[in-house]
Amino acid sequence: MRDWFQTGWHILVFRQGPQDLPPGHGWMLIALLAYLLSGAVLSLLRDVSHPIAGLLLLDIAITTGFFILVLYGLGRSARLPQSLQAVWLCGTGLNLVGMIFAPALAEPPADGSLWLDIAVVVSLSLVFWSIALLAHILRHSLEWPFHRALALAVLYSVFNIMSTFYVFPPNG
Description:
Layout: H1 2-12, H2 25-45, H3 52-73, H4 80-106, H5 114-142, H6 146-167
Helix pairs in contact: 1-4, 2-4, 4-5, 5-6
């Protein structure tokens, strides 16, 4: 288990790829459960107005569907469990970092403190980091150059955000 977390950390810092994770659906499910738990806690800390379960399930459905389409479509279906495992394991790590700054974003201080500025910058950094991580995972899963995987990661991220806003409108 320690090696699994260490590999997840190395993927987060771009030292290893999903192929370095143990194969199998069991590890993928453990990563998914960790992602669900960390996502639920992060949503509670951020005081999200939409149903937390709905947001998480939509994200998981979009991510799973995307990876199934891409990996099966390009003949890399054997890499699906490790690729999803990497996405959810890294998503858990990013959620844990986000938990540190979530309270400042949920109830910003009235005085416009530096803490809020730092929280906003870190949150935006996590968005860009997650896109780069997705590209890193896709690069290894598809054996593509990074710039090509990055383009696909950006398209996926835009689709995911637009789909989420469609199903759960920001002011709805």
